[in-house]
Inverse folding.
């Protein structure tokens, strides 16, 4: 078994352990009851989403500086995972919000901003799929990856001013309990899962590009 | 309280489904690429730079 | 430095397509080089690389003493690239198009200068007519007038004879002679062998993105 | 005047000249904007109070929709004239192209707003004139932010196949701060700014304008490469 595969199995095992702990072993939260269990997935997945988009940003800058297609492939791999994580975050968030707040959708800054990230990075992926020359495609994508990441904090801030309802992040004091440890496990597990999927997606993208470039010549 | 387990189950379930879906999709694409590179590999190499 | 352009192993690929596969080119100052080849053999791509529009995938290019991609600005100020389709705004008249070109090049040209440049290419009568009403041959002449606005050390002409009548072709030849006498290097890319080689000091033939035959 | 400003002015002059020669584009845009304003009344109903309260939001949505249509044409006239890349052949910083096109979009949008604000005032029964000064500032900042992002993305999408679809897809999420802040400030001023929230919105709008302007100007040369 190579190292990447091992990483994958480790991530899956940790996610499984975290699921069992979160679903069965831990008692219900004193304040929020059973629904709290959703946060052990929701928060780490949201973290993975932010991590993924940050990676897109970094890889975009690296591409613009060095102009190596490798960085572009790493960026698109992260962007794809970021969009999946964003959609998942939204679904988990609404599932948690319905019993907690009594509504499916709150126009809260974090939810709204996350919802806006989906079209932004979908646009990123669509623009990539439109260009045939790999260099052009990488250049356009890198520009969008960079601009998008600059916008996000301000989009967040503007929605925050517009309306705020979301509960603040847990304070450090509550983190070092059994709940905190399960949450920490979730962060580690989902980060490893991201790393695994990211590298595997990158390998696929590299092979695909090689295939695209070495195919029978046109024109 | 009981109906909260519906939401919790849905949340955990969807996460696992999403994970499996993405993995399966990756695997399908990897296989497609492997099959394509097996077929077109030779002819392609002739198109390289002179 | 008596070479205006030195290109070594210039390669450019567009995805799967290799437009240039290792082209070497040397253009001395005060010389005319004819770049021949059928459509799609990389003539335009090579000119785009030399004109600083396009970065090559591999290879080294030195233009007017600057190793690309450095000095692009300096090169653009002293070189000109006349593209096949031309560059004119439909709603603007001949004079207005030229005035725009002059302003973009950082030159202040008086109305008389602009009209003079147009008259020199037999467009005097069309100076105040919007380009929308012009024929393709007239647009090609406008390109020629645009190049005459400023002194040039390197002139790249992409299919300059297309859609020109006999007088128009004569104007191009006259201009090419003028640039050579002034010590500028001229590259003419065309598939019209007779016209392209009339003043050529050197002939380069591209086939499939490679140089096929050298000096003549 | 610096070389950069002179060349940006040349592009602005050329675009405005072209625009005034045809004018169909602008007339169509105005009619579209008027239609959007009408559609809102049809959707909401003839409740003058409600329309008055929503006026700020409706107005900005009309500006964004109409502006997006006009943005698509920013670089298309260059493609008709032989290609945006040919502009890069002129010596000097290519950022002049961005600045010139940005100025052009500002002029077009300003002309649109000159008609749209009075039209909205009449249709929705709001008194913009009472707060003319502050509202002018909001309109200026909002229009600037819209143009900064819009000009940039229209340069980015001009070579794409489905640009009519992709421009709004990239543009609208980026416009969220501009729209929220412009609407927020407009409504606050229209209500006489009782909570003093307008300055906050203006500050947010101004910071977003500045940050995006700097980033767009800085990275624009990469967009124009080929």
């Amino acid at each position: 078994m190579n190292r990447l595969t091992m990483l994958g199995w480790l991530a899956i095992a940790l996610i499984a352990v975290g699921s069992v702990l979160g679903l069965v072993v831990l008692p219900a939260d004193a304040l929020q009851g059973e629904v709290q269990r959703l946060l052990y997935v929701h928060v780490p997945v949201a973290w993975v989403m932010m991590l993924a988009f940050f990676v897109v940003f970094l890889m975009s800058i690296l591409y613009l500086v060095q102009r190596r297609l490798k960085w572009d492939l790493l960026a698109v791999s992260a962007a794809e995972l970021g969009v999946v994580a964003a959609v998942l975050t939204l679904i988990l968030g609404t599932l948690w919000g319905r019993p907690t707040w009594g509504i499916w959708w709150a126009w809260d800054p974090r939810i709204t901003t996350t919802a806006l990230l989906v079209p932004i990075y979908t646009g990123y992926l669509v623009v990539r799929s439109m260009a045939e020359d790999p260099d052009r495609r990488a250049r356009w994508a890198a520009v969008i990856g960079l601009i998008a990441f600059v916008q996000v904090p301000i989009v967040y801030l503007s929605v925050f001013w517009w309306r705020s309802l979301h509960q603040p992040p847990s304070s450090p004091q509550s983190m070092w309990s059994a709940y905190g440890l399960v949450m920490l496990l979730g962060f580690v597990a989902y980060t490893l899962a991201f790393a695994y999927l990211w590298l595997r997606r990158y390998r696929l993208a590299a092979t695909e590009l090689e295939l695209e470039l070495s195919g029978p010549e046109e024109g | 309280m009981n109906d909260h387990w519906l939401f919790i189950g849905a949340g955990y379930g969807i996460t696992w489904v999403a994970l499996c879906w993405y993995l399966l999709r990756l695997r399908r694409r990897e296989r497609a690429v492997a099959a394509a590179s097996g077929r077109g590999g030779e002819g392609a190499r002739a198109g390289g730079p002179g | 430095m008596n070479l205006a352009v030195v290109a070594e192993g210039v390669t450019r690929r567009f995805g799967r397509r290799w437009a240039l596969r290792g082209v070497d080119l040397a253009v001395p100052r005060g010389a005319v080089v004819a770049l021949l080849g059928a459509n799609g053999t990389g003539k335009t791509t090579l000119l785009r690389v030399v004109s600083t529009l396009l970065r090559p995938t591999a290879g080294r290019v030195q233009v007017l003493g600057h190793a690309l991609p450095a000095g692009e600005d300096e090169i653009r100020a002293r070189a000109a690239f006349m593209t096949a389709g031309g560059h004119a705004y439909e709603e603007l008249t001949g004079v207005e198009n030229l005035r725009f070109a002059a302003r973009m090049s950082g030159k202040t040209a008086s109305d008389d200068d602009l009209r003079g440049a147009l008259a020199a290419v037999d467009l005097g009568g069309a100076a105040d007519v919007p380009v929308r009403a012009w024929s393709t041959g007239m647009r090609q002449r406008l390109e020629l007038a645009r190049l005459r606005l400023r002194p040039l050390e390197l002139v790249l002409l992409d299919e300059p004879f297309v859609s020109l009548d006999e007088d128009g072709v004569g104007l191009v030849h006259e201009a090419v002679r003028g640039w050579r006498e002034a010590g500028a290097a001229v590259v003419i890319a065309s598939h019209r062998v007779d016209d392209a080689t009339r003043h050529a000091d050197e002939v380069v033939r591209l086939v499939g993105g490679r140089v096929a035959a050298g000096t003549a | 005047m610096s070389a950069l400003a002179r060349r940006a002015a040349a592009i602005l002059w050329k675009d405005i000249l072209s625009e005034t020669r045809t004018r169909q584009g602008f007339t169509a845009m105005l009619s579209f904007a008027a239609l959007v304003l009408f559609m809102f009344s049809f959707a909401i109903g003839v409740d003058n109070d409600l329309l008055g309260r929503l006026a700020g939001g409706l107005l900005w949505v009309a500006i964004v929709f109409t502006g997006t249509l006009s943005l698509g044409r920013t670089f298309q006239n260059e493609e008709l004239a032989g290609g945006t890349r040919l502009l890069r052949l002129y010596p000097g910083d290519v950022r002049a192209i961005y600045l010139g096109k940005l100025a052009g979009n500002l002029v077009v949008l300003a002309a649109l707003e000159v008609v749209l604000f009075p039209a909205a005032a009449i249709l929705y029964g709001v008194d913009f004139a009472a707060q003319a000064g502050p509202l002018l500032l909001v309109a200026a900042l909002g229009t600037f932010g819209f143009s900064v992002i819009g000009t940039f993305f229209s340069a980015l999408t001009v070579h794409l196949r489905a640009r009519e679809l992709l421009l709004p897809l990239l543009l609208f999420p980026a416009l969220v701060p501009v729209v929220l802040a412009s609407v927020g400030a407009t409504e606050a001023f229209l209500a006489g700014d009782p909570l003093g929230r307008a300055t906050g919105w203006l500050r947010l709008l101004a910071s977003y304008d500045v940050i995006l302007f700097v980033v767009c100007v800085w990275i624009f040369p990469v967009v124009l490469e080929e």
Q: What stands out?
A: The helical segments of chain A are 3-25, 39-66, 69-101, 109-130, 134-162, 172-175, 178-214.
